[in-house]
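Before the break, one more example. Copy the sequence into your notebook; we will annotate it together after we see the structure.
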Amino acid sequence: MSIEFLITSFIVVIAPGTGVLYTLGAGLSRGSKASIVAAFGCTLGILPHIAAAILGLAALLHTSAVAFQTFKYAGVAYLLYMAWNTWRERGALKVEQKPDRRSLTQVGVTAILVNILNPKLSIFFLAFLPQFVSAQETQPLPRMLELSGIFMLMTFAVFVGYGLFAAAIRDHVISRPAVLAWLRRSFAAAFVALGARLAFADR
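Here is what the structure looks like once it is written out:
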């Protein structure tokens, strides 16, 4: 395993994005269990993109404008839906003192969808993974699976770190209604901004 792959993957994973934002929100609104569930869901959400890249299906998104635009605007619509729910304090990021199993399931499902509905991830993995597979590799598929597994483990670990940090300061946040309202609006605005960035993204 090359140090270049580990460093590059860490930079990619730690960079703030939709998954990081959602995991932070889950930790702040519902605590440590929800943040871990969110981190796991976001990690699972990249699995279809990795599979698509390995199988070559991501090339379809890269070459077909219709496929990419359809996938893209589904993701934009979902981000705007999350922004609206966050603003109204509903849905997966609704503040709860003690989340139940049904609540945690909602957090997990939403986390999976957050990453599944991002077509840029498929294209990213299509471009990213082959760079670390030697042209002389006799069995490239196992190598790509190994790299993917390490990337997913790193994603989960980093996201859990983000989520547990948010959960650790949760009591200080929810005990202050003004701060909580400001954070809720900030998260809603951030989801709108991410949706806008995705809407204007090119293949």
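The chain has a mean pLDDT of 81. DSSP finds eleven helices and no strands in the chain. Try to locate both features in your own notes.
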